[in-house]
Write a structure and sequence with these properties.
There is one protein chain. This protein has one domain. The chain is 64% helix and 15% strand. It has a 3-stranded antiparallel sheet with strand order 1-2-3. The longest helix is centred in the last third of the chain and has 39 residues. It is elongated, with a radius of gyration of 21 Å. The N and C termini lie far apart (49 Å).
């Protein structure tokens, strides 16, 4: 399983970097282009953006801090991935997605001094993002689902324990 996760991380980083390379070479000169449209209704545009910060451009200009923080988070996620691979494929998959996205954006920060973003949702006002951001967001969504399921399971266990204790008392 660990070899599969490492291979997935490599493929995901490669996909992210290929799309970003295309954005730098082809999208940057034009700035913006339609991508997904139904009739006159724009859904998704491709917009070249150099994000010098973190989420939604926060902490702009903090390149070395962001490189350090991202490196630490990637390391923690990798350690968790290796430690949980035999116990929980779900958690190790979440970590692999996070590692891939983190490394994809880290490469940009080191290489360019900013992260290359290109996907621009037109349905509603939202940040411009990239493939690595998608991996990170999916990992975060999966973690929320996992935590909610764990909370539900914990509540069910407590309810069962309470019922068992009440049954013993009533005997």
């Amino acid at each position: 399983m660990i070899i599969l996760l490492i291979a997935a991380i490599i493929v995901f980083i490669g996909a992210d970097q290929l799309v970003k390379h295309w954005a730098v070479e082809s999208l940057k000169p034009v700035g913006n282009m339609d991508f997904l449209r139904i009739g006159d209704f724009e859904i998704l545009d491709l917009t070249y953006l150099e994000n010098r910060g973190a989420i939604f451009g926060s902490m702009a200009g903090q390149r070395w801090f962001l490189i350090g923080l991202t490196s630490i988070l990637i390391l923690v996620a990798a350690v968790v991935m290796f430690r949980t691979v035999k116990k929980s494929k779900f958690i190790s998959t979440i970590c692999a997605l996070f590692v891939a996205g983190g490394i994809g954006n880290l490469i940009d920060r080191i290489r360019y001094g900013f992260v290359v973003d290109m996907f621009d949702i037109q349905l509603f006002k939202f940040a411009v993002f990239n493939v690595a951001d998608i991996f990170i967001t999916v990992a975060e969504g999966m973690m929320v689902v996992y935590l909610l399921l764990e909370i539900k399971k914990d509540m069910a266990n407590k309810k069962a324990e309470k019922s068992a204790a009440e049954a013993v008392e009533n005997e």
